[in-house]
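I'm stuck. Protein, please.
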Amino acid sequence: MSNMNKAVYITDIATAVPRKSYTQDFARRFVTRLPRYTEAQKSFLNRVYEGTAIDKRHTVIEDYDKEPAEYQFYARNAELEPEPGLEQRNDLFIEHARSLSLEAVRTLLDSRPGIDPHSITHLITVSCTGFSAPGFDFDIMQQVPLSSSLHRFHLGFMGCYAAFPAMKLGHSICTADPTARVLIVNAELCSLHLQLKAETDIMVANALFADGVTATLMTAEAGLTKGRNALALHGYASRVIDNSVADMAWKIGSKAFDMRLSAYVPKFIQKNIATVVDDLLLQVEHTRDDVQTWAIHPGGRAILDRAAKALELKDGALDNSFAVLREYGNMSSATIFFVLKRILEEGDAGLIFAAAFGPGLTVESAILEAV
C-alpha cells in the first residue's frame, strides 16, 4: 500500500458502555421463559447462550430486570408483544449514540489535557445500528465542542469490520496532511435490534450482540507519542471470501435491522484466515513468526477458536479478544477498538495482526506495532 513509509499512529483509545448490563445467564433465563419459543427452541437457546464464552453484556434497554408494568421499551406484558417498531428503536439510537459518544470523546480528551479539542481536524463516525441527520457526529462537534470547520465523514452499515475502513481513511488523511488529528468514533447499539423471531440466525445474534462506543485518536505527529504508548500502523488488507455473501448480511427489516449470521461463518474464517494473514505480512516484509500479538474481532467463541486453530496459535494468544468477548460481547465495529485498547495499555505488544469480519463475507485486517 502506498505511503506506508510515513508513520501514522493510534495514540489514544477511550470506551463507553451503557450503565445497564446483564449477565449472560440472566439473558438466557429471560429469553427461555418467553412463551413464544417451543421446548426444542428453548433447548437450542440454552446451548447457544451457555456456549458463547460471554459473562455479561451492556445494553441501552433497561427493561429486562423490571416488572412488565414498568417496561419503557417493550410492550407492558410478559410476552413483550407487539415488539417495538423501527422508529422507536432508532429514536433510542439517536438518544444514546449522542450521550455515549460524547462520553467516550470527553474521556479521551480529559486524559490528554495538552490536546485542544479545537485542534482535532477530522471526525470519522461509524455505525451500522442507527441513523439520523444531523447525526451524532454533529452532536460531538457542537457539544464537546470541536471546531466548527471540522471535516466530518460517516461510515454506515458496514458491520463488524468497519473500524478498519475508518482506520484506512484516517491513515490516508494523516499521510496527506501530517498536521491532521483524526478522531474516529464507533457507536454501535446492537441490542436495539434484538428480535424474538424463532429463526436460528436471529436467536444466535441475540445471544452475542451488545452495545459499546469507542473514541480513537490518529495522528502522524510523533510528538504526541512521547512518553506514552502508541500503535503505529504499517499496512492493511481487504478480502472478500468467495461464495459466502449469503452467510453474513445486515439489512433493514420491518421492525428492526435483520442480521443473518450463518453457522458456516466460523468455518469460512478457519479456511481463509491463514492466507489473509500471510498475504498482508508479505506486503510489510514480515512473516507469521514476527507477530507477537493477535487482535482478532471476537465475533463469537467459535470464530476465535477456529481462527486460533487455523493459525496454530499458542494457548493464550487470543486472551485480549476473549477478555473483551467475556466482558462485553460482540459490539460490532466498536469491538476491535476495545481489543486494541487493551493492547495499547499493555505497551509491549510488538508487532500486531488485527482483523475483523463482516457482511460479504469480508475480512478486513491491519498490521500495527506498539511503539
The mean pLDDT is 94. The chain has ten helices and 13 strands.
